[in-house]
Design brief:
By secondary structure, the protein is mostly beta strands. The chain has a single domain, classed as Porin. It is 11% helix and 51% strand. It has an eight-stranded antiparallel beta sheet, with no helix packed on it. The termini are far apart.
């Protein structure tokens, strides 16, 4: 009987122990996004008007012929292991998340005014660094869309109160 209770407790606590290798706190993420079949962006895309600033923890997206690059900060915790730009206006929800040690796999759905997108995310946290990929597909403005994101992360410290 005791063996069964110990087995049940270990099965229930395994997911909590598995995520112990991921460092919780404030992270800075650099994301590069590409969209196959989309015309290359010109290198001199418009910037913010003089005197206008981005919200704290977010940089102006940088456009190049290779895609879009963006930096943002996010507080990572056991409920929020998928980096997200908290300043974004998309309504994205994680549908399913699987955490094994320092690896996170997730699927998500984003509802935007332009259409619905589905994504698959895979990340590996390693001490103070993280690497991830995300593939997104769906419809935007009644047209099929695909997007790929490569993200690297660096741990900054405790989340602000």
């Amino acid at each position: 009987m005791l063996k069964r209770v110990l087995l049940a407790v270990s099965l229930l606590t395994a997911p909590l122990l598995a995520s112990a290798e991921i460092k919780y706190g404030l992270w800075s993420f650099d994301t590069k996004m590409t969209m196959p079949n989309m015309p290359k962006m010109p290198a001199n895309m418009p910037q913010l008007p003089p005197g206008v600033k981005m919200p704290a923890g977010m940089s102006m997206p940088q456009f190049s012929p290779e895609g879009m690059k963006m930096t943002f900060q996010h507080c990572v915790n056991k409920e929020q292991l998928v980096p997200k730009n908290d300043k974004s206006k998309e309504d994205c929800k994680v549908d399913k998340m699987d955490v094994k040690g320092d690896t996170v796999n997730a699927t998500m759905t984003c509802n935007t005014p332009e259409g619905q997108l589905k994504g698959k995310f895979a990340a590996t946290y390693s001490g103070d660094t993280m690497q991830s990929t995300m593939d997104i597909s769906g419809t935007a403005h009644n047209h099929p869309m695909q997007m790929h994101q490569d993200t690297t992360g660096k741990y900054i410290g405790a989340c602000p109160k």
